[in-house]
Amino acid sequence: MHVHIVNAHLTYPNWSEGALTRTMVEAARTHLLDLGHEITQTRIEDSYDPQIEVQRHLDARLVILQTPVNWFGAPWIYKRYVDEVFNAGLHSTRFLETDGRTRSDPSRQYGTGGHLHGRGFLISSTWNAPRDTFSNPGSVLFGGKSVDDLLLGLSTSYKFVGYTVLESYGLYDIFRNPSDVEVGIKAYGAHLDRQLAALDAPPSATPDLPS
């Protein structure tokens, strides 16, 4: 399988240098290479060619976004990346041609026009927020919303062009609980294995996945 890993970290010197993001990218790369998969990588901060990124998405069966969560979203360079890469995929009609709706078939829904079905998209994110603040109705900030609810702005672009959105992975409370971070890094490979199995499962056997 071809896997494309996108590193969305944005460096803030003497504050946020991207070491944890690099560690997670390397953990995924090493684990997947050991399983015999082919890997391509893009570190957005180092620049990229949108046309090459379109081709990498077409080549890949799985795309992994590795990102810190800055002010409850990915760094702004990731929005630029999506705008440029997905617009290139739209302009060339390689990602999609329409939003899926047709006058001849009113049952076709918005968001069903993508060409990239059979591929998976996985978000691996790092948070200052503690794990127990998610899916918690008592959370003052999130009010019961899950991690995947809060990542919807990142995953929907991929779903729009046909990807299956796989279960995300996260490291939480990264500044206050470094021991939990170490455990989470070690457990990442097993999560990737489960998501690869879900992606390869026959459609009738594929478990419900976050949308």
TrEMBL record:
SUPFAM superfamilies: Flavoproteins
Annotated signal peptide: none
Cofactor: FAD
Keyword set, alphabetical order: FAD, Flavoprotein
Source organism, top-level taxon: Bacteria
Domain Flavodoxin-like fold: 1-194
Keyword Transmembrane: no
Pfam families from the UniProt entry: Flavodoxin_2 (PF02525)
Family recorded in the similarity comment: Belongs to the oxidoreductase MdaB family.
PANTHER family: NADPH:QUINONE OXIDOREDUCTASE MDAB, PTHR46305
Protein name in the entry: NAD(P)H-dependent oxidoreductase
Organism: Kineosporia mesophila
